Automatic annotation (TrEMBL), chain A:
It comes from Pseudotabrizicola algicola. This is DNA repair exonuclease. Coiled coil: none annotated. Signal peptide: none annotated. The keyword Ligase does not apply. It comes from the Bacteria. Keywords: Exonuclease, Hydrolase, Nuclease.
From TrEMBL, chain B:
The lineage of its organism: Bacteria, Pseudomonadati, Pseudomonadota, Alphaproteobacteria, Rhodobacterales. This is Chromosome segregation protein SMC. The keyword Signal does not apply. It comes from Pseudotabrizicola algicola. Residues 262-333, 531-590, 707-741 form a coiled coil. InterPro entries: P-loop_NTPase. Keywords: Coiled coil.
Length: 374, 878
């Protein structure tokens, strides 16, 4: 026999993204909600009837009624699928009101795994959930996966948290033993918490979030379509992309004389995709004032293409070359001011913050002088 | 550069004419001509040649055209670094511009000529040469009229000033960054103003302030929401606890256990209560039996007591009756003894009274005799005392005559001594004259003849010498020093002192004082004697005498008798009386005691009789009393047996009794447990309902989602505010650097200017300095003697002089830089007085040492003393 299901986790529905501008904030939240539909589509494409959500379906213990209701409606709409929802650390069982409401309006195709007890998903296929009792339970909840099931049945563990040799998404120390699948005789251990996709062992996977929510992970967001053969045979996990937004954080290291515009263009995604891209460009190295001005102008020009764009120039040093100050003025007060600022920016006796300010002021002077007619 | 010749063709005043000035030398050249000669036409033509493009058709250019029309032309011949050049321009029609060298070759024309001129002026049309064109009207000296001409002139003056400023700014631009610096600073200021206040705080309404405000608002909202979230978390935890409690309280097994326990406890309590009832009844029976036995015993004791009392009452009645009889006999005997003692006592008392009377009579007789003798003595003493008193009165009267005191005598003696000393002094000054007459004639003094003998003259005295004349004697020494007056005053003082002593002289005074002192001693002795004789005074002595006489009179009624014998008789009588009285009192006491004893015995007897009757009445029949005692004694044994049986039963029940309080406590505890469970469950359900309501309400708000959003927005707002703060700091630093550089440049620029200007200024105003405005780049104040005087309050002449001096200073500065250009003054210094204009001429000459100065003026006389070379204008028709 073969049994297929879709493994996902960490939807974090209702995540606020408050540190982003309002325009992109709404889109990001909507994209997280849309992940449910995309998961359903991925499950259908994989021929799976069951979707296992390994925790953190909701971002908060008390999501708004709209977040809750929209999730329920989306799951109910996929009536050909079954949703198995495991409480994670963000939406642990301590979030009693969340689960009370969730269960109160739960559609028939929704199973909330509030107890660490084996559930027979279908004949000879048992799900062994380990719901999070608290945000930080402080014990290995996955021990519950050692519960007995009928001989020969497929055993699928569903848990949430970090494994022992690997810190969690939020940096906490892991408690789940990395060989939990072996210890508990699992054919597959579906884990949540780590937002990036990662295989921990032959039958142990973090699926990652279906919709990226930060710059931490490089892989494209997706879910795992898992197929289990007879008990004891290796599981087969296949990635199904589900993400709408790309979160990119490329690095651009430049030196004077570089073709800045070309180097920048190489870092950027195709223009047509940029609307659904959040990009944080880390610029490092050093540039002449004119080159820096050109780079800043180029950055300002491309920024509106993106859903969100930010360039971090704090590690980009300005290199003042002979001609740079001439471009400000060959003599007179402007030149004097420029040289004063340059001296301040190079004065090792000054604190770094003051030198950076002087450097920024010099760059600003350069830009302003270029703007005014000669 | 030096101008050597100027030529105008068909230019304004010289329409249809060619006007030419030749031979303009180094130093000062003056063209002094009356008004309407065309001096300003030369000025304007020369200005146009340098600063108006040959293809210009502006109003300013058209103003060069004469009334008759035609194309105006101007030319100037220059000497530059030893070479001669000719510049030519024609405007409006067949415009042209040419530059020719000293060989007459055209080296540039049209635009190239313009470019050549521009290079010559160094900084373009608004360049430094513009500084050197000075004409009337600079520095606010415009015409003040309202005519069109005045207005036009003011406009021209303003234009000139503007050009001047522009030219100054043009030079400064080279040093300070000029317009670009202004634009950059403006943009920096605008960027700063959009974000920050003057003190670099967030500007209200600006992006920075909005970010800061937004961050603060979000922080406040976040804190509030965190509090709400915390309370929600607490409410959720509370609900979890409540639900666990409710589950435990609703446990049916626990409830059944508690109900069974309560039922068993209630049954145990009922059994214990039944046993307790049995015990209560047994105790009651025991108590009843004990009471019955006690009553019987008490009744037996009462009957036995009654029988004893009856016997004792009979014995008491008999005993009291005998006692009464005995007392009656004794009482009668005592009464007889009392009567006898009273009679003896009465007799003794009479004898004692008689002895007392005899003794009293004898004592009175003795007292009268003593009083009479005392009266005689007192009468004698009174007579002596009265004699002393009379003597004292005489002595006092004699003493009253003398008022002198030792102090008065001392003052008189002192006054006498002063007087005597003065008298001696005066006498020592006398002139002694001795008169010896031989005839009848006598010397006269004050009309009185003086006899022969000595005469003392103390003062200027005129003696009449009959038949001879007069002779005036002047004692001389001491005359006029007031000794006589002093002596007279001393004499008066002596008389006054003697008057106070009531003595004519000092000896009498001394005698009077001696007498007075003697009298004082006699008075004292007399008073002592009188006090000895009549202590307390004469009246007291007389009273004592009267009393003694009265006493002697009152008691002198018989012979005195033997007092000692009488006193002994009286003592004997009184002793006998006392003894009789003691016997009488003893008899009376015994009789009284016996009367009281009889009364007591009688009362006791009567009481005994009464008690006997009462007890007899109480006892009734004595036979019945004995029978009753017999019956009661027999019943007493049965009653003791009943008591023992009841006590045994009670003891047994007590030994078997369960603890009723424990049973009751168990029932109460278990009932409380059951009721508490119900109550706790109800309370828990009520609290849970409330907590559910709160959680439901807050959960609807999506607090954590909102909180997460707020945190993100707050962080973004704070980051944005930090970026703006950094931007402001960066802009402020840039502004500071720019302004510092510009200040330094201006200082660099104006330093040389002032170094050139101040020596010129000192020619007019020694020690004065000019203050130059940082923004207008023009002198704004004159510093004299530590006071800054704004140019606007200076006189027109002074302002005009300063304007000219400023330009001369600039000209010297340019000359030192190797860029010498002419200074052209057109009707300048029109407001200067004679002294100042002389000083200005000196200044002009000082500058003219290495500077060409061309002066155009209509003030021929005033400028006659300027010196310099005179220029001539050659005018010829075309």
């Amino acid at each position: 026999m073969a049994y297929s299901f879709l493994h996902s986790a960490d939807l974090h529905l209702g995540k606020a993204f408050g540190n982003f501008p309002e325009t992109i904030r709404g889109r990001l939240r909507e994209a997280r909600h849309g992940a449910l539909q995309r998961l359903a589509a991925a499950a259908r494409q994989a021929g799976a009837r069951d979707v296992l959500l390994a925790g953190d379906t909701f971002d908060a213990e008390t999501p708004s009624p709209e977040t809750l209701r929209h999730a329920l409606r989306a799951m109910a709409a996929a009536s050909d699928l079954r949703w198995f929802v495991l409480p994670g650390n963000h939406d642990s069982l301590a979030a009693s009101e969340l689960w009370r409401r969730f269960l109160q309006d739960a559609p028939a195709n929704l199973v909330v795994l509030t107890r660490p007890e084996p559930i027979e998903m279908e004949s000879a296929v048992w799900l062994l959930p380990a719901p999070c009792t608290q945000r930080r339970p402080g014990r290995d909840l996955s021990e519950a996966m050692s519960a007995p099931t009928p001989p020969g049945a497929l055993r699928i563990g569903l848990g949430h948290g970090a494994i022992m040799d690997f810190s969690g998404e939020e940096g906490g120390l892991g408690i789940i033993p990395p060989d939990r699948a072996r210890l508990s005789g699992l054919d597959y251990l579906a884990l949540g918490d780590w937002h990036g996709r990662m295989q921990v062992g032959p039958a142990t996977w973090y699926s990652g979030t279906p919709e990226a929510d930060g710059f931490k992970h490089d892989l494209a967001a997706g879910a795992l379509a898992v197929t289990l053969g007879a008990a004891g045979t290796p599981a087969k996990a296949e990635v199904r992309p589900t993400g709408q937004f790309q979160w990119l954080r490329p690095a651009l290291d430049v030196l004077p004389g570089d073709a800045v515009a070309e180097r920048l263009a190489q870092c950027l995604p195709p223009e047509a995709e940029r609307r659904d891209v959040l990009m944080r460009l880390d610029v490092s190295g050093r540039l002449a004032l004119a080159e820096r001005a050109a780079l800043e102008a180029a950055l300002a020009a491309v920024a509106p293409d993106f859903g969100w764009f930010e360039a971090d120039l704090s590690r980009l040093a300005s290199e003042v070359q002979d001609g740079d100050l001439d471009m400000i003025d060959r003599r007179g007060a402007l030149r004097e001011a420029a040289e004063s600022l340059l001296a301040q920016s190079r004065d090792p006796a000054r604190p770094g913050a003051e030198r950076e300010l002087a450097e920024a002021a010099l760059a600003r002077l350069y830009a302003l002088v270029q703007e005014v007619p000669a | 550069m030096k101008i050597r010749a100027i030529e105008l063709v068909n230019l304004r005043r010289f329409g249809g004419q060619r006007a030419r000035i030749d031979g303009i030398g180094d130093g000062i050249s003056v063209l002094a001509q009356p008004n309407e000669f065309g001096k300003s036409t030369f000025f304007d033509g020369l200005h146009a040649l340098f600063f108006q493009h040959h293809r210009s058709k502006t109003a300013q250019t058209r103003a060069l055209q004469p009334h008759a029309g035609g194309a105006p032309e101007a030319a100037v011949e220059l000497e530059i670094e030893g070479r001669r050049f000719r510049l030519e321009k024609r405007w409006l029609s067949r415009q042209s511009a040419r530059v020719l060298d000293d060989a007459g070759r055209v080296i540039a024309q049209e635009d190239e000529a313009e470019a050549w001129i521009e290079r010559l002026t160094g900084q373009g049309l608004a360049g430094p040469s513009g500084l050197l064109w000075v004409r009337q009207g600079l520095f606010g000296l415009e015409p003040e009229g309202s005519s069109a001409a005045d207005k036009a002139e003011r406009e021209r003056a303003f234009s000139t000033r503007r050009d001047l400023v522009a030219s100054v700014a043009g030079e400064i631009d080279a040093m300070t960054g000029g317009r670009r610096m202004d634009l950059v600073l403006t943009r920096v200021a605008e960027a700063l103003a959009r974000l920050a206040t003057g003190t670099l705080k967030p500007r209200a309404g600006g992006e920075w302030a909005r970010a800061v405000d937004e961050a603060a608002g979000l922080e406040a909202a976040r804190v509030g929401l965190e509090d709400k979230a915390r309370r929600l978390t607490e409410a959720l935890a509370q609900r979890a606890g409540l639900m666990r409690n409710l589950q435990a309280l609703s446990d049916p097994e626990a409830q059944a256990r508690e109900a069974a326990g309560l039922s068993a406890a209630q049954e145990a309590l009922q059994a214990a209560e039944r046993h307790a009832e049995q015990m209560r009844r047994a105790a009651s029976d025991l108590r009843l039996a004990q009471l019955t036995a006690e009553q019987s015993a008490a009744e037996i004791r009462a009957l036995q007591d009654l029988r004893t009392r009856l016997r004792r009452a009979a014995e008491a009645e008999a005993r009291t009756a005998a006692e009464l009889d005995k007392v009656d006999a004794l009482t009668a005997e005592a009464a007889g003894q009392e009567r006898a003692a009273a009679a003896r006592h009465d007799a003794a008392a009479g004898a004692s009274s008689a002895a007392q009377q005899a003794l009293d009579h004898a004592r009175r007789a003795h007292l009268a005799t003593a009083a009479q003798a005392r009266a005689i003595g007192l009468a004698s003493q009174l007579a002596r005392a009265e004699a002393q008193r009379n003597l004292l009165e005489e002595q006092v009267a004699a003493r009253a005559v003398f008022r002198i005191t030792p102090a008065a005598l001392a003052r008189a003696e002192e006054a006498q001594a002063v007087f005597d000393r003065l008298t001696a002094q005066e006498e020592s000054r006398h002139v002694a004259i001795r008169l010896d007459y031989a005839g009848e004639a006598r010397v006269r003094l004050d009309g009185q003849p003086l006899e022969a003998g000595s005469l003392r003259v103390q003062r200027v005295t005129r003696l009449d010498l009959p038949g001879i004349g007069g002779m005036t004697i002047d004692p001389g020494l001491g005359a006029g020093d007031g000794l006589a007056e002093t002596r007279a005053r001393a004499g008066d003082a002596l008389q006054a002192a003697l008057g106070a002593c009531e003595a004519p002289d000092l000896a009498a005074a001394r005698r009077a004082l001696s007498e007075a002192q003697r009298l004082d001693a006699a008075i004292e002795a007399t008073r002592a004697m009188l006090a000895e004789l009549a202590e307390g005074g004469l009246d007291a002595l007389r009273a004592r005498l009267a009393a003694a006489r009265a006493e002697a009179g009152d008691t002198a009624d018989g012979p005195a008798g033997d007092l000692a014998a009488l006193e002994a008789a009286l003592a004997q009588a009184r002793a006998e009386e006392q003894a009789a009285l003691a016997v009488r009192r003893e008899a009376e006491a015994r009789h009284g005691q016996l009367r009281e004893a009889r009364a007591g015995a009688l009362a006791a007897h009567r009481a005994a009789e009464t008690a006997q009757r009462e007890i007899a009445a109480e006892a009734g029949d004595l036979v019945d009393l004995a029978a009753r005692l017999q019956i009661l004694s027999e019943a007493q044994g049965q009653q003791a047996e009943a008591c023992a049986a009841a006590a045994a039963l009670l003891e047994r029940l007590r030994a078997e009794a369960p603890d009723l309080d424990t049973a009751r406590a168990a029932v109460a505890r278990l009932r409380a447990v059951c009721e508490g469970r119900q109550r706790d469950r109800a309370s828990c359900e009520t609290t849970l309902a409330g907590v559910n309501g709160v959680i439901g309400a807050w959960a609807d708000e999506g607090i954590e989602e909102a909180l997460d959003e707020l945190r993100g927005r707050e962080a973004a707002a704070k980051a944005r505010a930090a970026r703006y703060e950094r931007e402001v700091k960066s802009l402020a630093l840039l502004r500071e650097a720019l302004e510092a550089a510009r200040r330094a440049a201006r200082d660099t620029y104006f330093g040389p200017v002032l170094r050139e200007l101040n020596p010129l200024l000192s020619i007019l105003h020694p020690g004065a300095q000019l203050q130059i405005d940082d923004s207008s780049l023009l002198p704004v104040a004159l510093l004299r003697e530590g006071q800054a005087e704004g140019l606007d309050i200076l006189s027109g002449g002074t302002r005009e002089q300063l304007a000219v001096l400023t330009r001369l200073a600039f000209a010297r500065l340019f000359a030192r830089a190797g860029r010498a250009v002419p200074v052209i003054l057109d009707d300048a210094l029109v407001h200067s007085d004679d002294d100042r204009i002389e000083a200005m001429f000196t200044a002009l000459h000082r500058v003219a040492l290495d500077q060409q100065i061309i002066v155009l003026t209509c003030r021929q006389r005033a400028f006659a003393s300027l010196g310099g070379a005179r220029m001539d204008v050659t005018v010829s028709a075309l």
